[in-house]
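Propose amino acids for all 137 sites.
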């Protein structure tokens, strides 16, 4: 699910390359149509097809970006749910009479938050392995 974000330079090169490719396709088709003495409606249909191709490529890109954003929003919502649920007992732990119970509630909440960071968030470096809490008995 997680992929390294592309750089501005990479996106620019891809965008201009795609635009240039469509330009070359249009010029090639126009040259072919001119060499075959095609004009009028047929030439207009050629221009229309090039425009439709460009539109389809932009639509596909936008659809892909929309799916990525929806997935990110789902992950954020899920993290919000898990972290809030883990923080609720921690917030009320000062009202416990025994300090051992307070520590136990805080440790359990911390473990739940760590689990959410490790399991829900994408990427390998969400929680470094060296920061794992020991299990309590």
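Proposal:
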């Amino acid at each position: 699910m997680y992929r390294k974000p592309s750089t501005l330079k990479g996106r620019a090169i891809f965008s201009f390359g795609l635009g240039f490719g469509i330009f070359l396709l249009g010029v090639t088709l126009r040259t072919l149509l001119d060499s075959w003495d095609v004009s009028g409606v047929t030439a207009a249909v050629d221009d229309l097809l090039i425009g439709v191709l460009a539109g389809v490529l932009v639509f596909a890109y936008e659809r892909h970006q929309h799916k990525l954003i929806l997935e990110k929003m789902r992950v954020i919502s899920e993290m919000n749910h898990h972290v809030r649920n883990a923080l609720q007992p921690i917030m009320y732990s000062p009202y416990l009479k025994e300090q051992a119970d307070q520590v136990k509630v805080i440790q359990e909440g911390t473990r739940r938050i760590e689990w959410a960071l490790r399991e829900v968030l994408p990427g390998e470096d969400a929680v470094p392995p060296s920061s794992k809490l020991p299990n309590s008995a």
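The radius of gyration is 28 Å. Confidence is low (pLDDT under 50) at residues 129-137.
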